[in-house]
Inverse folding.
């Protein structure tokens, strides 16, 4: 989990958790670099529309910002990967910038998983059995939520 | 023969002046994935709102499906929408008519 001590953000994850995070971060980076057919729900959620009903407003917004948003997301992944140890448990002090990058990265990974699972609020409130392989992605989603919650507490404290 | 000076009629959606004057609004939409605490954090970070105001807006998003979080010129609102997207929140912009 993440925590804050005397103004410094620290992360401490055991080997299994750290490996899971490494895997997810690399999968997310591949997702950003891959080509996607138009209308892919995960990409539509990571790069959402800017208008509910005005295509012109949305088009103008995307013309201005789509490249920047893609670049921002790729930079966020690189910042996060740079501070994640390559193997073993992960124990580190993080700068404000690294912490904020991790916050955004955890959000995006959760959005990708949640969108792929097509979760609803009801589904998010159901109990999950991590031993059930079918439930595993949802269990990961909840785990990342707890991890993110600890980071938000650490950043807000 | 009398010359009539042109009369400016202030109808919405016509003269350029009234288009520029109508403020734009940035709306945040509910989604089933993002944490409530995260939405509060982002609203405080991006708009400098107090925790109370950010929480109130988050609860509105949560219960009503959406909330207007800022208003202003088109350029300002486009930037607000972008910054929210960059933090994983779904925001749209609309003109406040």
């Amino acid at each position: 989990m993440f925590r804050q001590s005397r103004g410094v953000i620290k992360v401490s994850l055991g080997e299994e958790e750290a490996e899971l995070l490494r895997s997810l971060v690399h999968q997310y980076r591949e997702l950003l670099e891959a080509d996607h057919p138009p209308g892919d729900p995960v990409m539509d959620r990571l790069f959402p529309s800017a208008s509910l009903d005005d295509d012109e407003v949305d088009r103008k917004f995307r013309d201005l910002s789509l490249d920047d948003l893609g670049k921002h997301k790729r930079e966020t992944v690189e910042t996060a990967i740079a501070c994640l140890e390559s193997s073993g448990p992960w124990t580190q002090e993080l700068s404000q910038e690294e912490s904020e990058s991790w916050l955004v990265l955890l959000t995006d990974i959760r959005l990708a998983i949640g969108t792929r699972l097509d979760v609803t609020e009801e589904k998010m409130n159901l109990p999950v059995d991590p031993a059930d392989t079918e439930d595993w992605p949802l269990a990961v989603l909840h785990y990342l939520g707890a991890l993110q919650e600890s980071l938000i507490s650490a950043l807000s404290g | 023969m009398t010359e009539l000076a042109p009369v400016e009629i202030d109808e919405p959606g016509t003269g350029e002046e009234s288009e520029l004057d109508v403020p734009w609004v940035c709306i945040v939409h509910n989604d089933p994935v993002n944490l409530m605490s995260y939405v509060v954090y982002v609203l405080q970070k991006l708009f400098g709102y107090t925790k109370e105001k950010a929480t109130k807006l988050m609860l509105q998003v949560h219960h009503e499906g959406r909330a207007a979080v800022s208003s202003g010129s088109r350029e300002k609102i486009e930037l607000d929408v972008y910054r929210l997207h960059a933090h994983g929140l779904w925001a749209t912009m609309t003109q406040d008519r």
About this structure: Chain B has four helices and three strands. The interface with chain A takes residues 31-35, 37-38, 41, 78, 81-82, 85-88, 90-94 of chain B (CB under 8 Å).
